[in-house]
Write a structure and sequence with these properties.
CATH topology of the largest domain: Structural Genomics Hypothetical 15.5 Kd Protein In mrcA-pckA Intergenic Region, Chain A
Distance between the termini: 33 Å
Largest sheet: 5 strands, antiparallel
CATH class of the largest domain: Alpha Beta
Number of strands: 19
CATH superfamily of the largest domain: RNA-binding S4 domain
Structural class: mainly beta
Helix content: under 10%
Number of domains: 3
Strand order of the largest sheet: 5-4-7-8-9
Shape: globular
CATH architecture of the largest domain: Roll
Number of helices: 2
Radius of gyration: 18 Å
Length: 231
Amino acid sequence: MKLKRQLSPKFWRIETKTKTFTTSPSAGSHPAFSSIPLRIVIRNILGIAENASETRTILNGGKIQIDGVIRKDNGFPVGLMDVIHVADAEKYYRVMPSNKGLVIKEMTKDYDKKMLKIKSKNILRGNKIQLGFHDGTNIITTKSDYKPNDVVVVKLPSKEIISHIPLEKGVTLLVTGGKNMGKTAKLKEIEKISGSRADELIIETSDGDYKTQIKFVFPIGKEKSSIDLGE
């Protein structure tokens, strides 16, 4: 599918005046405007291909993995916390938030781990629990202590849960949306909101305290991030 270039997010880093259309993110894991099509990651951001033909050759050759899985779809949506592996260069990258939108940071360690924010929790038969995550994936578990808006750290590509980061006072957060996107913060207070509105949070950043929506925070550890998040 195609998308008008003028509608694309600025963090895609594509020219919007010379051509009319660009690759649209495929349906699937991340929302369209909170992700980057894999073709644009390869050509425009990482710069490992100069044109569409070279990009197709790289993808069809199985040279790119996302979260340990080979991806060949030009439009595969690459989003927050995804781990990119470029096989020929043996380099790893992680998608992170910044004040300019999503950025891709190179990693030298912890590229076999990923943080997943819990978006949903459903009880299944046999005392099993299905956790749905921010990247559209899910895991079946028997442990009941996970809650929506908590984060789990998983091993890639198996998605085995290796640690749990609850959303609670004092936790270190990554701000993933709003005017403070890309900053790290401490959670000071959770303000319970009655009715259908989501709870709001008071967070402490280097610039002071702010109120933000719960959807814009991502717990990453107690005192600091529990895994390396790139350079």
